[in-house]
Amino acid sequence: MINQLVFAYFAVVILFSAIMTISRRNPIHSVLFMLLLFFHIAGVFVLLNAEFLAAVQLIVYAGAILILYLFVVMLLQVDRETKSSRANRFWPWLTAFGVIIATEIALLVLRGSFPGENGVMMRTMPGTGVKELGIELYSKYLVPFEIASVLLLVGLIGAVLLAKKDAKE
Amino acid sequence: MIPLSWYVILSALLFTIGVVGVLTRRNVFIILMSIELMLNAANINMIAFSHYLQNLTGQIFVVFVITVAAAEAAVALALIILLVRNRGVVYVDEFNILKG
Lengths: 169, 100
Prior knowledge:
- The structure holds two protein chains of two kinds.
- Chain A is mainly alpha-helical.
- In chain A, 72% of the residues lie in helices and 0% in strands.
- Chain A starts with a helix and ends in a 6-residue tail after the last helix.
- The model of chain A has no long low-confidence stretch (mean pLDDT 84).
- Chain B is mainly alpha-helical.
- Chain B contains three helices and no strands.
- Chain B has helices spanning 4-24, 28-52, 57-87.
- In chain B, helix 1 (4-24) runs antiparallel to helix 2 (28-52).
- The longest helix of chain B is centred in the last third of the chain and has 31 residues, at 57-87.
- The interface between A and B is large, with 87 and 69 residues.
């Protein structure tokens, strides 16, 4: 019961701050609502026994990606945002389509059933799962892990190369 | 015990909010943030299934999704800096330089 209440709180705040994120006029307000959203998503991860990923969510998403967004938004002063319209002219239609699709998915999921849903507490290991995750990541998924590091290197070089000013100007 | 379908519905709603954000907003920052919303919705889904199926593969995938999201944010923000430096606006409907 208490679990469900906690989940309901997280879900309500997640959906509220997501809607606020996409509807605010000022991008800085959007980024701050996004921060609230990431904290509550980390809470959902803790509810699902994924403590390591909750920490990664806070450190990488809230700590790195979001700060990067905030920096760029603040660096390019976007003061025109207060005057012109924030959405394109089809937004009522597109929002209506979104509502329809969301209700459809929710109804479909509520009608069906998933395996292992009938109230079985599944985690058999007494530990937190961080150890098993590490073993799995460094044995079975070692090659994808290394490729991910190469991807990060490519992202780093790409970002530096794109954003640096030309020497001639 | 929370039913798995609650998590699936939560992530579906979050994903739809992200899609609506990408489709409707004009500000390119908000569009990028909506993409992050969609990635987070997928992450919730994968961790929920990983928990209920007792299989760590979902959590491994989330690690990779977060990696890709970080790289994507860095490159996309560099591209936005370039675009704004060249055009002076952040609205996607004014980025029509490929139009003849």
